[in-house]
Design a protein that fits this description.
The protein has two helices and eight strands; from the N terminus they run βαββββαβββ. By secondary structure, it is α/β, with parallel strands linked by helices. The strands form two sheets. A four-stranded mixed β-sheet has the order 1-4-3-2, covered by helices on one side. A four-stranded mixed β-sheet has the order 5-8-7-6. The protein is globular and about 55 Å long.
Amino acid sequence: MKLVQVAQHAEDLERASAFYQNLLGTEPTGLFDPPGLLFFDLDGVRLMLQREESSALLYLAVPSVADTVERLRGTTEIVSEPHVIFHHENDALGPAGTDEWQAIIRDSEGNLVGLVSYKATAS
């Protein structure tokens, strides 16, 4: 089974488009207004931003949580600063021998977005 689409609330599609273009580093794949739908591709999974949708907590993989937070600092609220959330001894939940870094930000529409990256555990 494969995840196909994740939906997220966006009151202002233009504002949400600018935010997610900056965060993801890519253009939207589709805009249909009306009825008020904006799409981005997340490595084969559609992110659908819609006025009538509920808020969800998305966790997005980024190359470096710390670098991404620094790039976004001053343009969005940093709810939770970068920190190690878990050490992966095996590959059951992430790459073995890595620390999982996370931070939480708030998008332009007030939704929480988790940022995740993996870094080799320091010896």
